[in-house]
Amino acid sequence: MQTISYYNSPIGKILLASDEQGLVGLWLDTDRYYGDILAKNYSEGENKYLSSAKKWLNIFFQGKEPNFIPQLHLTGTDFQKRVWQALLKIPYGTTTTYKDTAMKAAQDKKHLPIRATGGAVGRNHICIIVPCHRVVGVNHNLTGYGGGIDKKIKLLQLEGVDISQFKKP
């Protein structure tokens, strides 16, 4: 059974969802895949996974790096999970490219699945905590954020990233 809760952040309302294994979703209200994996029957409330995620968000939105990751239950294909695990390794306050992320997620390093990686980054169900906002185009393009480029910019600035080095769409 999934449980949902909401969090009011400086960049808008956030929907959080968990199941019995951990946090399964965190979506900005502008996310193109908002609530896409919610079960038909869920309850609204609080539990240890949602509380932990809110604690993480409180620290993050104070402009600080949280020193823990809430219990996550990543749901997707094996490839998507490898991409999301690669995203979790991007250090706070830094960025990486889709190409570098593809290198880390690919099993066959000779054939980089850059488009598939972009698709997996875009289908990340747990934004911010699984930091897809830290992925940029190889030519320093600020591209591909499901919650909107304006939110991506605000999240990067919050982490102290100098966004003047990037090209805006």
UniProtKB/TrEMBL annotation:
<dbReference type="Pfam" id="PF01035">
    <property type="entry name" value="DNA_binding_1"/>
</dbReference>
<feature type="domain" description="Methylguanine DNA methyltransferase ribonuclease-like">
    <location>
        <begin position="5"/>
        <end position="68"/>
    </location>
</feature>
<keyword id="KW-0227">DNA damage</keyword>
<dbReference type="InterPro" id="IPR001497">
    <property type="entry name" value="MethylDNA_cys_MeTrfase_AS"/>
</dbReference>
<keyword id="KW-0808">Transferase</keyword>
<keyword id="KW-0234">DNA repair</keyword>
<dbReference type="InterPro" id="IPR014048">
    <property type="entry name" value="MethylDNA_cys_MeTrfase_DNA-bd"/>
</dbReference>
<dbReference type="InterPro" id="IPR036217">
    <property type="entry name" value="MethylDNA_cys_MeTrfase_DNAb"/>
</dbReference>
<dbReference type="InterPro" id="IPR036631">
    <property type="entry name" value="MGMT_N_sf"/>
</dbReference>
<dbReference type="GO" id="GO:0006307">
    <property type="term" value="P:DNA alkylation repair"/>
</dbReference>
<dbReference type="GO" id="GO:0005737">
    <property type="term" value="C:cytoplasm"/>
</dbReference>
<dbReference type="InterPro" id="IPR008332">
    <property type="entry name" value="MethylG_MeTrfase_N"/>
</dbReference>
<comment type="similarity">
    <text>Belongs to the MGMT family.</text>
</comment>
<protein>
    <recommendedName>
        <fullName>Methylated-DNA--protein-cysteine methyltransferase</fullName>
        <ecNumber>2.1.1.63</ecNumber>
    </recommendedName>
</protein>
<feature type="active site" description="Nucleophile; methyl group acceptor">
    <location>
        <position position="132"/>
    </location>
</feature>
<dbReference type="InterPro" id="IPR036388">
    <property type="entry name" value="WH-like_DNA-bd_sf"/>
</dbReference>
<dbReference type="InterPro" id="IPR023546">
    <property type="entry name" value="MGMT"/>
</dbReference>
<comment type="function">
    <text>Involved in the cellular defense against the biological effects of O6-methylguanine (O6-MeG) and O4-methylthymine (O4-MeT) in DNA. Repairs the methylated nucleobase in DNA by stoichiometrically transferring the methyl group to a cysteine residue in the enzyme. This is a suicide reaction: the enzyme is irreversibly inactivated.</text>
</comment>
<keyword id="KW-0963">Cytoplasm</keyword>
<keyword id="KW-0489">Methyltransferase</keyword>
<dbReference type="GO" id="GO:0003908">
    <property type="term" value="F:methylated-DNA-[protein]-cysteine S-methyltransferase activity"/>
</dbReference>
<dbReference type="GO" id="GO:0032259">
    <property type="term" value="P:methylation"/>
</dbReference>
<feature type="domain" description="Methylated-DNA-[protein]-cysteine S-methyltransferase DNA binding">
    <location>
        <begin position="78"/>
        <end position="161"/>
    </location>
</feature>
<dbReference type="Pfam" id="PF02870">
    <property type="entry name" value="Methyltransf_1N"/>
</dbReference>
